[in-house]
Amino acid sequence: MIEERQLTLIMENKPGALVRVVGLFHQRGYNIESLHVEPINDFKPYKFIEDELNTKFSEGEISRLEIKTTVDDPLMRQILRQINKLIDVIAVSGNEGTYLKGVLRDENLL
Amino acid sequence: MKLAGNDILIQSLIEEGVEYIFGYPGGASLHIYDAIFNQKEMQHILVRHEQGATHAADGYARATGKPGVVMLTSGPGATNAITGIATAFMDSIPMIVISGQVQSHLIGTDAFQETDMIGVSRPIVKHSFTVDHQSNIAKIIKEAFYIATSGRQGPVVIDVPKDLTNPVDLFEYKYPSEVNIRSYNPPIEPEQSQIDRAVEAIIKSKQTVIYAGGGTISSNAAKELFELNSYINAPITNTLMGLGVYPASDKNFLGMLGMHGTYQANMAMHNADLIIAIGARFDDRITNTPEKFAPNAQIIHFDVDHSSVSKIIEADIAVFGQVKNSLQAMNAKLKSRLSEINDSRLDAWRNQIAEWKEMHGLDHDLYKNNSDDSPILPQAVVQHIYHASNGDAFVTSDVGQHQMFAAQYYHFDEPRKWINSGGLGTMGFGLPAAMGVKLAYPEEEVICITGEGSIQMCIQELSTCTQYKLPIKIFNINNLALGMVKQWQDMNYDGRHSSISYEDSLPDFTKLVESYGHVGIKITKNSQLKAGIEEAMSIKDKLVFVDIYVDPNEHVYPMLVAPDGSLKDMWLGKGEKT
Fold first, then answer.
1. Type and span of the H or E element at B159
2. I need a labelling partner for B125 at 20 to 30 A (CA). Which of A75, A85, B85, B298 fits?
């Protein structure tokens, strides 16, 4: 079923990271309805990522990106997996669950 | 130790064990080339066009498993390399591409020879870096090699502004011993629960087929695959990219599958109750119409890339991890349950497949016809090459009918010996790729099977072969036209041959190669074929170009019926369908 979905990404705040995500939507034939990105300063909600990846975020290092897109269900899983493959993406979450660099969690954690 | 940016870059490549850099200098890379001049550990191979550099590095990578390294200047140097980078990307080949860039303060001003290389190459790289400071060069090189060679491998571009390689400013240099990228952790070990499920399915299956692709070669898992099938003893097919990963001479081998796969391989896939997909991605040249693909089969899919699994064909059991590690886990489990694997479970299935092979299998004895009453068949050329090289040469190919004939009739018993552009289908790949292979293995026989269309796309590299004394054997299967396009026009456009012919304007290839200092041999009759090919193989110290005039009307069969066909729907000859 085609419906509007929201995806949330946590990614490295590096030059070129955003355009890789946006470019991927275009390359794979998906459309972006809306997009919002900003650096994260409060890391408390993302402690589970720090624990899982055994890292510590510092100020200005990571961004949160929200994308609204309209796709059907099977495509959504493809999008999540393709985004998760981008080197600068740390985690991506949608209705299907959360991808955290290879690890799939069955709930939307972001 | 303090070094300038250009020396940091070159020292870092030496630290990575790079033997060859394939490249072409220019304004933005002058500082880097000065650093190349001042060292002895690596050899720079000067190509004649940057596309040749990328294919040569690619051929080197496919043959050795080590990443190929390419050095470019900015602007046209960088954009000339795009086709080669895309070729490596589609086939998941590890490659490091270093492109010079205009000085930092000029970026974005439309400076001389400025191109946004990171932007242009973005969709066709695994990752890319822009060097922002000399002190980061070593770390970027380390990360680039790690990314290119781990997980699903691929090309990585590093764009280097000229001012950051200037020889004046010195910076502390120490090559990092470790690499850790928190946002990049490709899977290695599989989940045991999936292994258990896979083994369970194998024990129960009565119509198993193994479908192994290029990922099995990338993961260096040929030995593990062979061991796996020593327990299962199932029919096995390889993709175009996977040829050689399982010995073609083994009794279980069905040949290649897909668009021009063998009848028995495609029929086995269509009728299987269990398909074990290993490092393969269900490309459209394999599945034909996905909705009609293998209607009764359960699918086990081994892959390192999450996004390849259930992309085209839904997997019932997905095993993520390095294929090598996953197969090792499979082998341990299968060994422990050996008594439950009843070999006779597949007897009826094997008989059925033998029957298919008997009915419409390929004829591997076409080379025995030496009568001049009929034109030379391109298939027979490949068969002669196979016998004359004892079946153990490295064979590169270009793209088109000759590529399919090579894949069908040269039987590869080892991985990394068959080097071709599978995913992108890049004409012009064969000759430069053969140069990369020959540099990697100077003592081995390296053959390029090409056509008169493809060879002209990178023919300038004949000059590079002279400079570096690369005695490659080139077999030009000359049908005076773009054969594969012509075949499609014959079959789908009522024989309207639009723009596929250049008969009156072809060069005399033997004279052309002789002008470069190579040896040219021309063959026009069946009776000359065996002796001509053997003569070429006997010349060890020179590049030999054998121009072989074949039947211009020959088609490649079998061929899947499209659109809307399944894997059991094949053309078996002109006007003859299953």
1. strand B155-161
2. A75
Q: Which of A16, A23, A85 sits opposite B123 (nearest CB)?
A: A23
List chain B residues with CB under 8 Å of A53: 182-183, 185
Q: Give the total number of structural domains in chain B.
A: 3
Rounded to an integer, the average pLDDT of B447-471 is 98
Q: Tell me how far the alpha carbon of residue B322 is from its chain's centroid.
A: 19
Q: Please write down the HEC assignment for all residues of B485-538.
A: HHHHHHHHCCCCCCCCECHHHCCCHHHHHHHCCCEEEEECCHHHHHHHHHHHHH
Q: Within a domain: residue B183? A: no
| B306 close contact with A: CB closer than 8 A | yes
Cβ-nearest to B123 among A27, A77, A89: A27
State the average pLDDT over residues B533-556: 98
Does A90 sit within 8 Å of B183, measured CB to CB?
yes
The Cα–Cα gap between B484 and B501 comes to 12
Give yes or no: residues B342 and B372 share one domain.
no
Which one is predicted more confidently, B250 or A26? B250
Domain A12-88: what homologous superfamily?
Answer: ACT domain (3.30.70.260)
Interface pTM, i.e. ipTM: 0.95
Residues of A in contact with B305 (CB under 8 A): 85
Q: Is residue B155 part of a domain?
A: yes
The parts of chain A modelled with pLDDT lower than 70 are: 1, 102
pLDDT at B247: 98
Q: Which structural domain, as residue segments, surrounds residue B412?
A: 366-573
CATH code of the domain in which B424 resides: 3.40.50.970
- pLDDT for B403-431, tens place per residue? 999 999 999 999 999 999 999 999 999 99
